[in-house]
Amino acid sequence: MSCSSNSLSVQPSVPGIANKAAAATARLRSIDALRGLVILFMLLDHVRETFYLHHQVPDPMVVVDAPPDLFFSRLLAHLCAPVFVFLTGLSAFLYGNRQASGRAAASSFLWRRGLFLVVLEVTVINFAWTFQFPPAAVFLQVIWVIGLSMLALAALVWLPRRSLIVLGLALVAGHNLVDGLHFPADHMLHVPWAVLHDRGWIEVSETLRLRTSYPLLPWIGVIALGYAAGPWFTSGADTVLRRRQLLSWGSGLLVDFVLLRTLNLYGDKPWEAGDTALTTAMSFVNVTKYPPSLLFIALTMGVGLLVLRAFELRPHARWLTPLAVYGAAPMFFYVLHLYVLKFLYLGAEAVWGLNQGKFFGFEAVWMVWACAIALAFALYPAVHAFAGLKARRRDIAWLKYL
Q1: Considering the domain boundaries, does residue 357 fall inside one?
Q2: Which domain holds residue 146?
């Protein structure tokens, strides 16, 4: 799936589809593989939210209440949103770089695609979570925030690259300064601030509420930095230099995370020493996702950039192929897996009833992992077929939106 056809993908790298797909460069295959990896982490987390909801965890997690297997499974899923948003900005740059009109083409693409994602979130995706029509609640989650981030970036692409980097860093690093700012429901700034930074409920009417699950402000910073990283990945870019930049930025973010976290003064809620080394370590990496704190982004993007570099070092490794396939059809997979999980849950509830209080659920975290692995294998043929269709039929306009 090319970035001209999907905001979350750059170029098809699906095996067996024409020579031009097989000739995808290492830099683009590594991007698809990274996206595919976090898609599978997302699948794991959504299986948890479907079949392990009786052990739901808050944000940030409460270390003393979270068993290590549950804690680290959730922590692993923290990589998903930052990588998705960053690669969305990167993909937009590469799309514009291939067009004669450059930034104008990128801006137009971001505007159209962003609007589509916002509509998709509040209709098709929200229904997959709730199965209510008309809905009593609409959950504004990751696709919503990617869509809004794209709309913001549609305007920001006109800034000089240096200014875009400064703005991105300022939003990522500085938004925690306003964590204590809140507005009551009757205040004129309640709704815009709930969308931008203060996760909460927006009362639309007596029968409809909106939940701003993903506050927007820091994600604009992440997508802006992804766009600014685009020149590293152009066809004429120096491969050695790009890998050095990925290593330095990835390592630098992790060093910054450790230093800031050790100081325990800014960037997230303070950590505390526990009764054991393990609980202390869990507290140290227990970062806030909603909205993503400075330390959340430093930790996850540091890891993400280093993984991207590692994938570039071995771009033709056979084990990267299934990851690249998933990364080539992310939106198709996103919608597909939500509906598959919903039908599986309803079927299990019909057959076995509610075995975990008001939920049907698994008994242990290892069952969540087993289910996610089984679904990854089961859904792979459909994802592979759809990615192949998109690579072959670029003349079908509506495919670009799936």
Answers
A1: yes
A2: 18-401
